[in-house]
Amino acid sequence: MNDFVLCIKNDGNPASLIVGKVYRRLSSQRTDPDSMIRITDEDISEVEGYLYPASFFVPVDLPVQARRALFRNKAKSRPS
Hints:
The protein has one domain (4-77). A three-stranded antiparallel sheet has the order 2-1-5, with helices on one face. The protein has a two-stranded antiparallel ribbon with strand order 3-4. The relative contact order is 0.26. The chain is α+β, with helices and mostly antiparallel strands. 18% of the residues lie in helices and 24% in strands. The model has no long low-confidence stretch (mean pLDDT 84).
C-alpha cells in the first residue's frame, strides 16, 4: 500500500478534496469496500479519515524528506 495518493478528481467533494493535492492514505478497515480508499482529507478532525472512490486518486512515491515533512505537518495540525 502506498502511504500517499494524489487527488485527480473531486466530483461532488470540492470542499473536502483538492485536485492536485497529495493526501495520506490510511489503512483500510475491514468493512471498507474494495473500490474505496480511506484518506485524511481537509477535515483533519476526523482521525479515522473518510472514504472516497479509489478512482479519485493515483498512488505516488515521495522522497524520504517529503514523506517526513507531510507526516510532521499532519501531526502538528491534529486537534489535541
